[in-house]
Design goal:
Elements: E1 2-6, H1 13-24, E2 27-30, H2 31-45, H3 52-60, E3 64-69, E4 72-77, E5 80-81, H4 89-98, H5 102-116, E6 121-125, H6 128-132, E7 138-143, H7 146-159, H8 166-182, E8 195-198, H9 204-214
Parallel strand pairs: 1-6, 1-7, 2-6, 7-8
Antiparallel strand pairs: 3-4, 4-5
Helix pairs in contact: 1-9, 2-4, 2-5, 3-5, 4-8, 7-8
Length: about 220
């Protein structure tokens, strides 16, 4: 079984997808973390974030590995566990920037499809239902109001000890929405056969219950 969960930044995709996978006994893959890892490496190297000619050689020298450890997803970049390092506003914007590059998307989509092959999996991202798993049995597009998504991201970052400003988080979120939805390569868009779910007034358990009901598994 393949379940695709797409949506904009801060919609709660990762949290919901992880909980849904746990309820159904499926493997969970946070594809956004993979783009964040590529963005992090480009930042560290001081490379232009949207230059395919520069990023392609970097990819050829990059080792990216996703593992499950004690029930949590870990991302290893060239042997380093960057699971925490990739969760900053700067890396979030870098991930959005590198995701506009065709070579980056093709490299990661192929990796994601290989991971999904032969597995029952829940994947969340921005092009899972349209590009990565177009034949997924279930497709959902999860969204929420801008301010709600920004508040969730703000609370998440604060809980991790990061000193952030709500207005800046909201500004960054809207900038990423624009960048993700207007890029030429696999833009953020609801798949035609995906079910739209607005989580603005719902908690995680309620969203998961909604998805299970839509799947006929409540």
């Amino acid at each position: 079984m393949h379940i695709a969960l797409d949506g904009p930044s801060g919609a709660g995709k990762s949290t919901v997808a992880k909980a849904l996978a746990a309820r159904l006994g499926l493997v969970y893959l946070d594809t956004g973390a993979m783009y964040r890892a590529v963005g992090l490496k480009a930042l560290r190297l001081g490379l232009p974030l949207k230059d395919e000619q520069t990023l392609l050689p970097m990819l050829e020298e990059t080792q990216l590995r996703v593992t499950r450890e004690n029930g949590e997803q870990h991302v290893y970049l060239d042997g380093e566990d960057v699971s925490f390092s990739i969760r900053t506003p700067e890396v979030s914007m870098a991930a959005s920037a590198v995701s506009t590059v065709g070579a980056v998307r093709r490299w990661l989509v192929a990796m994601q499809q290989e991971i999904a092959r032969g597995l029952d999996v829940v994947m969340d991202g921005r092009d899972i239902g349209t590009k990565v798993l177009p034949d997924a049995e279930y497709k959902f597009f999860l969204t929420a109001a801008d301010e709600v998504r920004a508040r969730r991201r703000y609370d998440e970052l604060r809980a991790k000890g990061q000193d952030v400003d709500f207005d800046e988080v909201l500004k960054d979120l809207r900038a990423r929405d624009l960048q993700d939805s207007t890029r030429k390569e696999s833009p953020l868009v609801q798949a035609e056969d995906a079910v739209l779910v607005d989580s603005s007034g719902l908690n995680v358990d309620e969203v998961v219950a909604c998805l299970l009901a839509l799947m006929g598994r409540a």
